[in-house]
Amino acid sequence: MKDWKKIIREFFFPPHCLICGEVLALEERGEKLCPKCLAHIPFLTGDQCAQCGRTIPGKATCHRCMLEDFPFSRGAAAFSYEVMRKPIACFKFQGYRYDGAELGGLMARYLKERFPDWIEWTDMMAAVPLHPRKRKKRGFNQADLLCRKISAETGMVYVPDLLRRVIHTRPQSSLNAAQRRENLKDAFALAPGAQVEGRHILLVDDIFTTGSTLRECSRVLLRLGAAEVRVFCLSVVEDFQSV
Ligand SMILES: [Zn+2]
Ligand SMILES: [Zn+2]
């Protein structure tokens, strides 16, 4: 019975490659990626900014991160947002919540290949939280789903709901950088009774845009005694002019 349902569903909604969107051939339908993407996952490689992860040939920190002076010490992103724009939109807004495990799996793979020492370094992973109202509306927090899979694949400890969003803020996408910062002031808090003192915390989100959200979350963790915070995102917006 289940098989029939699956066959009918696949007839009307043939599975697509998670990254490039190509319709998968019948024999590939066990996979989530097409053979091309599978053979060469378009991860960010080469010289990258040590704080936001975007490509910057020949430099350690990009101009913007130098000016921002973020409180987190390091940052990495597995993909350029250009590559992940559609997959993230499907995942977050079209109810493809199960893509979270696949995308989290790709993040785990990236970390293992590119920053294996970060896995050793991390005492606990935390997800950038959504306000409960937004979480209820979406049905899940995308960063939470990513963390669960990364934790399962790498063995890093994930503490769900370590951070909470206590103020329902305006959507960041409608604001400029200064407004984003003001909008997020005091928006985050640590879960009651949570202990972060002396811990190395890896903060996870889906998109690094201006870094304002990651900045505020890191600030809360450091203020409460975390030894160091690093951030790890599924994607980074490389062209900031387009934000
Ligand atoms: Zn593909
Ligand atoms: Zn940067």
TrEMBL record:
Residues 191-234 form the Phosphoribosyltransferase domain. It holds the Pfam family Pribosyltran. InterPro entries: ComF/GntX_DNA_util-trans, DZR_2, PRTase-like, PRTase_dom. Signal peptide: none annotated. Residues 10-66 form the Double zinc ribbon domain. It comes from the Bacteria. Belongs to the ComF/GntX family. This is ComF family protein. It comes from Anaerotignum lactatifermentans.
